[in-house]
Specification:
Radius of gyration: 14 Å
Number of helices: 5
Distance between the termini: 43 Å
Oligomer: single chain
Structural class: alpha+beta
Largest sheet: 3 strands, antiparallel
Shape: globular
């Protein structure tokens, strides 16, 4: 591992790519509290508060920066829960659906 620490957004992008590769297209707010914090620590050696990841996630969605990693869209799902859940639409599945 290099001495250059990745940005919080780069950690989120990497984590999202892994979820997409595993065909896991949903993200919930609890993932930022637990899974993403552990991912940053384990794979990148970076310890950040869950609130830092949540702020960066909000900024990524607002600025549509997810398009940098071939995600077409991110839509919030209405799941009648106090927890927010988003559906990730990667370019590859979007392309398959439009061809059908």
């Amino acid at each position: 591992m290099s001495n250059n620490k990745p940005t919080i957004k780069n950690i989120i992008f990497s984590w999202l790519k892994r979820r997409i590769q595993a065909r896991n297209y949903t993200v919930s707010s609890h993932h930022f509290e637990t899974e993403l914090v552990e991912y940053g620590k384990m794979y990148w050696g970076v310890t950040r508060l869950p609130s830092a990841y949540s702020r960066a996630w909000r900024d990524i969605r607002l600025k549509e920066e997810y398009k940098k990693i071939d995600i077409v869209g991110i839509k919030e799902e209405n799941n009648n829960s106090p927890e927010s859940t988003w559906r990730i639409e990667p370019w590859s599945t979007s392309k398959l659906q439009s061809a059908a």
